[in-house]
Amino acid sequence: MDVRYFTVTAPAPWNKSGIARITVRTGGSYPVYLCIGNQRAGLRADEAWALWVALGNALAASFGPAPDWATSQQDGGRS
User: Fold this and answer.
1) Which residues pair with residue 5 across a beta bridge?
2) What is the DSSP string of 9-75?
3) 3-22 pLDDT tens trace
4) In sequence order, which residues have a C-beta less than 8 Å from that of residue 54 and are 6 or more positions away?
5) Distances (CA, A) of 8 to 20, 35, 58, 61
6) 27-78 per-position pLDDT tens digit
7) Which DSSP state fits 5?
8) Which residues contact 48 (CB under 8 A, 6 or more apart)?
9) Residue of 33, 45, 57, 76 with fewest CB within 10 Å of its CB?
C-alpha cells in the first residue's frame, strides 16, 4: 500500500498559532496512523473505522451538524 497523508486544520484558540493540525497517514508501519498535534496513535483499519463512527455519532448528537470550517476541508478521500 502506498503511503498517503490527509491533513486538516481546526481552530485552536488555546495555542499560539490559533490552529491545530490533524493528520492521518495510511500505509507505512501501521495501516492508519493518527496525529493530533504532538499526540500520535497507530491504528488497525477496523479501529480507525470504529473511531470514525464513534466520533461521528457523538459529535452529531452533542453538537449538531459539522461547522463550515470542517465541511470545507472534506475532500472525498483524496490526498
Assistant:
1) 25
2) EEE-TTSTTSEEEEEEEESSSSSEEEEETTEEEEE-HHHHHHHHHHHHHHHHHHH-SPPHHHHTT--
3) 999 999 888 888 898 988 99
4) none
5) 8, 11, 20, 22
6) 988 999 999 888 999 999 999 999 999 998 999 999 998 888 888 887 654 4
7) E
8) 24, 31, 32, 34
9) 76
User: Cβ neighbours of residue 76 under 8 Å, at least 6 residues apart?
Assistant: none
Q: What is the pTM of this model?
A: 0.76
Query: What's the gap between Cα 59 and its chain centre?
Result: 13
Q: Are residues 40 and 34 in contact, defined by beta-carbon separation less than 8 angstroms?
A: yes
Cell of 39: 499526540
Contacting residues for 28 by C-beta, under 8 A, at least 6 apart: 3
Position 75: which residue type? D
